[in-house]
Specification:
Length: 196
């Protein structure tokens, strides 16, 4: 097959892409083991590039091992990934201390139930290591990138939960304090990156 034919095949495959599809052979997944169960998420490095690669590299570095889900809001999301301060004030991108990355968007990726997305501040290029998984059954579409917006508006979806929804439910329904911090320990034991 010539390189131009490969490009046509790739474009056709991507045109048929659905965020909620099961991972296909050769695709990258993340297996998150927590003290509340296991979750498997399909990652999208072929769509959002560096946004997914940042998570993959942090997981391979073992940065997330032992870090908590520090913010839990039932019917909205569960947030974790602060491996430095473990309270939502720390973390950094895979390049090292004080590093961050910018947003990457694709109109096919939305904040639906089970979407894996980057947390950030209101500043452009402020993604570090903190991520969240959408819990709301109707999604959290107010976080989607507006089609006519600037690059820093909205949040970057880079993966999708496809197995372990009961674990998401277990975590999302723990009791929390007035600052949305879990009253019981919710810990990421490990995140492994695999190809299916």
């Amino acid at each position: 097959m010539e390189s131009g034919e490969w490009r046509v095949c790739y474009i056709l495959v991507m045109a048929d892409f659905k965020q909620t599809d099961e991972p296909q052979s050769g695709e990258t997944i993340a297996v998150i083991i927590t003290n509340h169960g296991l979750m498997k998420l399909r990652l999208f490095p072929e769509i959002v590039g560096a946004a997914a690669e940042n998570f993959i590299e942090l997981a391979r570095q073992g940065k997330y091992d032992g870090s908590p889900f520090h913010r839990v809001i039932k019917d909205f999301m569960i947030q974790g990934g602060d491996f430095t301060n473990k309270n939502g004030t720390g973390g950094h991108a895979a390049e090292g201390e004080d590093s961050t990355i910018g947003d990457v968007y694709d109109p096919r990726l939305k904040h639906i139930y089970g979407a894996l997305s980057w947390a950030k501040t209101s500043a452009p290029n402020s993604i570090g290591s903190q991520f969240f998984i959408v819990h709301g059954k109707d999604g959290a579409h107010f976080l989607d990138h507006p089609e006519d917006g600037h690059n820093h508006q909205g949040y970057t979806v880079f993966g999708q939960l496809y197995e372990g929804f009961e674990t998401l439910e277990n975590i999302a329904t723990v009791k929390t304090d007035s600052r949305d911090r879990p009253k019981e320990e919710v810990v990421i034991r490990s995140i492994s990156i695999e190809n299916v």
